[in-house]
Specification:
The structure is a homodimer. Chain A is of the alpha/beta class. Chain A folds into 2 domains: 49 residues, RecR Domain 1 (Helicase, Ruva Protein, domain 3); 129 residues, Dna Topoisomerase Vi A Subunit, Chain: A, domain 2, CATH 3.40.1360. In chain A, 41% of the residues lie in helices and 12% in strands.
Chain lengths: 198, 198
């Protein structure tokens, strides 16, 4: 035991397990929380469990939601014949922030990543195919512009084109090697605008 | 609401309020937690509240503890006539890690910081004075080597010396493993000043 309190130590261990947080930061956060009023800490603890209990994946687009189908899938304002395919829920947020896209989404829950052992079967591709109808549809592939995203884009394009759907991909105006969630809105807008036949 | 889930948004807000965590990192952590098993998240939430409920400040040294007096204050192995004064509980840990100190501690709970409105009355100085007895005692001042720590060191030295206690402060000099050319002038000045027989 490094600290004089086992429960403090336990919080530090839990926090260290989170992405981007090392032991030093975890310690700093834990000591900060110790100084906060009890209600504050209880509220945070409750929010964590609440999030876990209330959220689920939308059965249509696979995004995180509290109602099923999610607000976007249910919205009458959305163009129902355009589906933007992204890797993670945070990518939906990144595209939404442009205010330039008014279609629907499909969240794959990752991208094809052989080194991490993620294959097509681990992604929500079946669910995407189920959404392809007979009408005039467009699928915009908006995956991260890195090797794995590229691989996934090519895989999906090959899979979708024979179904008679228009398949596009966001323009490679987005800087290569970056992650969608960190790209500024203007760049994402431009990429949506300049999408080309896949 | 930026996300399609209010409870997710709530967790992001809570996390963003923590030190060192901005909104992007909060979002990343929240989405990470969403992917974790429920028990994992519940365990973390419980650890937070547990820490808050179980810990208190040691009535002697003011360090965080689950038993009062704390393990260090109770330990028969500790030299009882040496008290190391530090600013925060994390500083106790930093000194403990050296394995070179076997005395007791006193945690001030901060340092004098006029700009932040922290004066001597906001620190556990009364509690420190109460620990000064008649015997052969040494108080080691181990506060951060910055303006506020310096101010607090001088204040405490002035307060303690008339009580007939030996007052020392940790040496200021070049840190081990550093290169002279990268050490700032003030530190080198202090190291020259405090030179000892080789």
């Amino acid at each position: 035991m490094l600290h004089t309190s086992q429960s403090l130590e336990s919080v530090i261990e839990h926090l260290s397990s989170l992405p981007t947080i090392g032991r030093k930061t975890a310690q700093r956060i834990a000591l900060y929380l110790l100084k906060q009023p009890r209600e504050e800490v209880v509220a945070m603890a409750r929010a964590l469990v609440d999030m876990k209990d209330k959220t689920a994946y939308c059965t249509i687009c696979q995004n995180i939601t509290e109602q099923d189908p999610c607000a976007i899938c249910q919205s009458p304002k959305r163009e129902r014949n355009v589906i933007c395919v992204v890797g993670e829920p945070s990518d939906v947020l990144a595209v939404e922030k442009t205010n330039d896209y008014h279609g629907l989404y499909h969240v794959l829950g990752g991208v094809i990543h052989p080194l991490d052992g993620v294959g097509p079967d681990d992604l929500k591709i079946k669910e995407l195919l189920a959404r392809i109808g007979n009408g005039d549809q467009e699928v915009i592939l908006a995956l991260n512009p890195n090797v794995e995203g590229e691989m996934t884009t090519l895989y999906l394009a090959k899979l979708l084109k024979p179904l008679g759907v228009k398949v596009t991909r966001i323009a490679r105006g987005v800087p290569l090697g970056s992650a969608l969630e960190f790209v500024d809105e203007a760049t994402i807008s431009r990429a949506l605008e300049g999408r080309v036949e896949a």
